Amino acid sequence: MRFQFLLDDNRLTKREKEQYKQLVCVDTSGTESFRMPDSVLMGSLKVLSMLLEKHYGQKVIVLIDEYDVPLAKANEQHYYDKMVLLIRNMFEQVLKTNDSLYFAVLTGYLRVSKESIFTGLNNPTIFSITDEDCDSCFGFTDEEVRNMLSYYDLSDKYDTIKEWYDGYRFGDADVYCPWDVVNYVSQKPRSKLRGIKLAA
User: Fold this and answer.
1) 58: pLDDT strictly greater than 50
2) Residue 71 needs a FRET pair 20 to 30 A away by CA distance; which of 13, 106, 136, 191 works?
3) Nearest C-alpha neighbor of 46 from the set 97, 8, 7
4) Start-end of H helices in the chain
5) What angle do CA 53, 58, 63 make, to 5 degrees?
6) 3-state secondary structure of 67
7) Measured between alpha carbons, how far apart are the two ends of the chain, in Å?
């Protein structure tokens, strides 16, 4: 829904705008949920990336956080096989046969190479929480938190932030949960904040 500006983009053809409309079609019969056939859903991320590449004139980066959560929920509710099929088809289209893709990052607990939804992908690079290559990229470092608190005149809150949100270790780095830190800072009196915005 955040990309409705695509409907006004002169670079997109009428057919491409119709493709976008399929992605945001809402069932108005009372459920207010999205309505689309499985074939549209499975190609939705690929279509959206193609439209965004055309709009911005550059290939897209796809970020998929906690890709394995739908699988866990499906397993609990006894429709795991159907969910594997859906996700495999979605991911194969957006991650393998997508000329608009620059690169993608997936996060989750299940190891990528062991999960059957990734059988169609070639040569993924896998980083676990013990790898040091990107260890400080998965949260705010202590220095970043101190700088943020200083910028927003909240340095006196450092001990509280450290106690509450400094509990993650990736590779050789201790990091803070970014969402929690930003959310905490954004709740402080507005007079102390200079333009911080949370993503919707």
Assistant:
1) yes
2) 136
3) 97
4) 14-23, 38-56, 69-76, 80-91, 142-151, 158-165, 178-186
5) 70
6) coil
7) 11
pLDDT on residue 98: 93
Pull the structure tokens for residue 81: 């096989």
Residue 145 φ/ψ, nearest 5 degrees: -65, -45
pTM to 2 decimals? 0.67
Q: 135: which 2 tokens?
A: 């260890």
Cβ distance 53 to 16 under 8 Å?
no
Nearby residues of 15 by Cβ (< 8 Å), 6 or more positions away: none
Residue with tokens 């911080």: 196
Torsion of CA 116, 117, 120, 126, to 10 degrees: -90
The answer to whether 143 and 184 are in contact (CB under 8 A) is: no
